[in-house]
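> example.struct
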């Protein structure tokens, strides 16, 4: 029987799979502006983690304002391309009814079950210690990320690469395919 899930009443707590790998605790500050995320503010923030063979390879949290500023720099053309690509998702309208754990048990776009995936990104939209999005958390497999990356303009790709350069010392390179970050990156 399929477990149904609703946001009536309290929001669900952030699942442990979205905790920081280094500390084992919830992410506590914005990677860009260092804003405290848990105590000081109720404003939304986004957690993104990339995993390969179940091992975390990169992760961060970014506050709503910084994420917004980042998106403003992305060309309209690229934003439309991302929106159209997300609209091809095979998961259907039942997705939002599922529990947080179920929502990250398959790729949101191609619906491939998580256990069949080698690399994927997961993303949650949170406030304080709670999940606040109906759609998220989401999982997007690296193969779908690569397809999305092909749709983006050079300027947008450079914009993403600068983010990685600033925070991780370079675009995900040798060990990690740089094309797997463009869709759910920020
Ligand atoms: Zn910030
Ligand atoms: Zn996929």
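> example.seq
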């Amino acid at each position: 029987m399929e477990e149904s899930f609703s946001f009536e009443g309290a929001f669900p707590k952030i699942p442990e799979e979205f905790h920081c790998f280094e500390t084992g605790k919830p992410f506590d500050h914005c990677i860009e502006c260092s804003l405290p995320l848990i105590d000081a503010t109720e404003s939304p923030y986004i957690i993104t983690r990339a995993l390969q063979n179940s091992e975390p390879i990169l992760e961060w949290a970014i506050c709503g304002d910084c994420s917004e500023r980042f998106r403003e720099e992305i060309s309209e053309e690229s934003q439309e391309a991302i929106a159209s690509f997300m609209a091809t998702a095979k998961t259907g309208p039942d997705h939002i009814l599922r529990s947080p754990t179920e929502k990250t048990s398959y790729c949101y776009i191609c619906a491939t079950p998580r256990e069949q995936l080698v690399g994927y990104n997961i993303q949650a939209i949170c406030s304080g210690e709670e999940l606040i999005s109906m759609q998220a958390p989401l999982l997007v497999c690296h193969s779908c990320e690569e397809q999305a990356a092909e749709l983006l303009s050079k300027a947008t790709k450079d914009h993403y690469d600068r983010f990685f350069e600033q925070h991780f010392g370079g675009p995900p390179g040798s060990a990690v395919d740089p094309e797997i970050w463009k869709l759910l990156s920020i």
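> remarks
The chain has one domain: 24-181.
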